[in-house]
Amino acid sequence: MQRRAIVIGGGVGGLTTAVALQASGWNVEVHERASGPPDTGSSLGLWPGALLALDGLGLADFTRRAARPAAYGTFVRADGTRIGDVDMAALQRRSGDRVRVVARPALLGALADALDGGIVRYGSRITDVHHLDHDVVIAADGLRSRARTALFGDAHRPRYSGVTAWHGTVGFDTDGMTETWGGRARFGVIPRAGGLTHWFACAPAAEREPSPGGELAALQGWFGDWHPGVRRVLDHLAEAGAAAIGRNDLYDLGTPLPRYTSGRVALIGDAAHAMTPDLGRGACEAIVDGVTLARALTTRADVQDALTAYDTIRRRPTQQLARATRLMNGAVHTPRRVAWARDTAMRLILAVGRPPA
Fold first, then answer.
1. CB-facing half-sphere around the CA of 128: CA atoms within 13 A
2. N or C: more exposed end of the chain, with fewer CB within 10 A?
């Protein structure tokens, strides 16, 4: 008898899991509360581990066509002086690829296109994970996961990091990733398909509190005297207007989960290990979660054995990464008077460290 899986959430992790399970003969349905696929969204850095996972789903042609390789990754100070570089060549020698950047809507579209018609059901909200009769329930319902709260309680709700993020796209090209660190704030630019650039900016702020003079004024206040690469983005935003600026507060899972499964339910992605985007690994880990879970479910006859295997493989590394991300968030947004120590530590890490691929 064909086994049945229900996926709650049609984001990167949920769709990845569905594609992998469909390829192995499972009957899959995906329920996404949004009314349709997104047509706007940020750029995602896909590290080699996530690219390898997507290759295994038959998406190698897509990632090589639509995901731009980042020619470099560099960290600089607010005045433009260099802190250090990500050694992309060494990463490629070690892992077979470098970081590639793709627009989130394009990746979601490619994953959805890999599924049979009717599998993804938009405008469908599932709020009760306890009374579903499928062989397995996959909760991929994001940062504010209802499934996580239902299974593990309020102690594992998202925690505000104390930092807000602005983001958007501007109409000029860049071929690498640059992140600028100043006193308590940072600014990043990332390449995007079509000759565009995705940008983001992060700074401390009160939770859910709009900027008194507007978001463009807030950005200019924080970053208006930074190096020319940052000011170039601000100049484009001044011409485009406030509508070109998105903003959202940054959260993580303050109290880690004791496990990623409960009964026949498995949590993946932000539902399992929400982290701030400081290391740019959220989407990558959701992809690897989905492929790992699907592999366990298709290589083990017993669902409970498969869920135990998934939890064993994924919980420790993702929670370690979430802790590292939390430490990075605190370090980046440190006061100006001790920023020199932060920069020195980062330069040493980049010189001798090996970022997880």
1. 4
2. N
